[in-house]
Amino acid sequence: MKKLLSSKYSAGAVNAGMLLLRLGVGALMFHHGYQKITHFSATAQHMPNLLGMGSTVNTSLLIFAEFFCSIFLMLGLFTRLACIPLIVAMSVALLKANNLDFFGQGQLPAVFIAAFIAILFIGPGKISIDGMIGK
To answer: Of 91-95, 103-107, 124-128, which gets the smallest average pLDDT?
Structure first.
């Protein structure tokens, strides 16, 4: 019980916690990206035309972020770089699709943003490819 209420932490606990966070949000985001790949044409039809790039380009960028960057995140490879497109994608989703409704429909993108920012600040931990190669 003493350990449960303690504010002390070990490096192993931080590394295990980062692994769980990376795997959890990475797997959830991977699922979203996989759904967009399998239904590419339907997703592209509903995608807004941001910055005049066209809905197909925007859908491709979103799939890159949600599918491929989430794979990098789960592996712990280029973790901090992989977080940046994910933060941008979820910020656009929160802003455009959910009208900054943090406490309504936009809760999920807001939680993803918070998790990705935490990973960006803290790093992947030692239980990752980045941690093993010393990045």
So the answer is: 103-107
| Residue 5 resides in a domain | no
Three-state SS for 47? Answer: coil
**Residue length of the chain:** 135
The model's pTM? 0.88
Residue 80, CA distances (Å) to 19, 100, 122, 128 in order: 14, 25, 9, 12
CA angle 126, 78, 89 (to 5 degrees): 120
Dist CA 127 CA 117 (whole Å):
19
pLDDT in tens, 21-54: 999 999 999 999 999 999 988 888 888 787 778 8
For residue 93, give the amino acid letter.
A
- Domain span at 37: 21-133
Supply 93's token pair. 């989703």
